[in-house]
Amino acid sequence: MKKDTPIPYDVVNKHIENLKIDNVGKASIREIKRLVDNVEEETGQRYIRMEMGIPGLPPCDIGVKAEINALNQGLAALYPDIDGIKPLKKEISRFVKLFADTDVDPLGCIPTVGSLQASFASFMTCSRMYKEKDTVLFIDPGFPVHKQQCNVLGIPTESFDVYNYRGEKLREKLEPILAKGNICALLYSNPNNPAWICFTETELQIIGELAEKYNVIVLEDLAYFAMDFRKDISKPGEPPYQATVAKYTDNYILLISSSKAFSYAGQRIGMMVLSDKLFEITAPDLKRYYAFDNLGKAMVFGTIYALSAGATHSAQYGLAAILKEVNDGNYDFIEVVKEYGEKAKIMKKMFTDNGFEIVYNKDEDQPLADGFYFTISYPGFTGEELIERLVYYGISAISLAITGSERTEGLRACVSLVGRDQFPDLKQRVEKFNEHHPV
Fold this sequence. Notes:
There is one protein chain. By secondary structure, the protein is of the alpha/beta class. It is 40% helix and 14% strand. A seven-stranded mixed β-sheet has the order 2-8-7-6-5-3-4, sandwiched between helices. β5 (183-189), α8 and β6 (217-222) form a beta-alpha-beta unit. The radius of gyration is 22 Å and the shape is globular. The chain starts with 8 loop residues before the first helix and ends with a helix.
């Protein structure tokens, strides 16, 4: 490897050794973050930081002001209702109707401590509904922490990479797995973390039909709600809407985050939305663990109560205020987060102009959207080898291998923390990498 790299070769090596990282390509996200932090501190040079999927925009001021007001009224001293304050439940129901064209009773709209608590609670409760159905299926690639949650809970998992099974091919892959009868729930994200693929209506219909046929609950992770920037999903009550499996089945739980769409990650306030049918469904096997055989009651007064006894009171008022302004058409949240898509378009071109390739690049026959993430590879390198080299060029990312992807040549790149002022550095660094590694 050439040593005239943008970041001093010896400095990077020293910190790899100090942190006792045997293989940078296999390092965790947090280990890569620590390595980059240490090198930046010593050299004073900023990395193009694409390893962490966290917001890079200011929080929504509407929520901040509403939280301050709630705190000033003394709500910090009071427990909220476990299933959420009424104003927020109402606005979640309105939001799902106005932006996903889906009717759901406020009763099934439950604030959670981030959408990660919603997924944890869903895994726990759904896997206990039927003795014979104890396994969660992941349509990968996906967010690694979801599998970690199942591991912590002792829930068996299965998974497959959707890369080769887009469109009608998805049915051929999915049906034999569900037909075995052991799958209680399946999870995917849409838009997808890490690949930024967006499931098409054909694919969502296949998932919905098979969920109905085999009595499987679909956990739809909408962490990047309405952020498919190829469509303008910013007008309340007007098409186009957020694509959702709720159009094709009543066996759904929506996991909606406020972290990215509203840049509200620090307040750990998310939304779990159970369909009206699921909220009222009876499953006698639930009584092995809960006082109730009703899914809605088991979820709220069994699982949610045991996990946190409700989401933060003031954060609920903050999110309620944001959603009300969005629902009333007074705040265009999509206009704010379009910055991610605009940056992705520029950054992807810098990489592809210098020998890199986009790994996940199509939704069936449509070019992929520009958004929060994109995936890259470089001829002749595995993903692990590519990360190991790029750290010397001041670029950090994560391997697709840890996301359940079979595309072991690929990396996930997140655009959120890369400032436009860093674009000249990025261009120079990928050009230098290409010069050192001619295709």
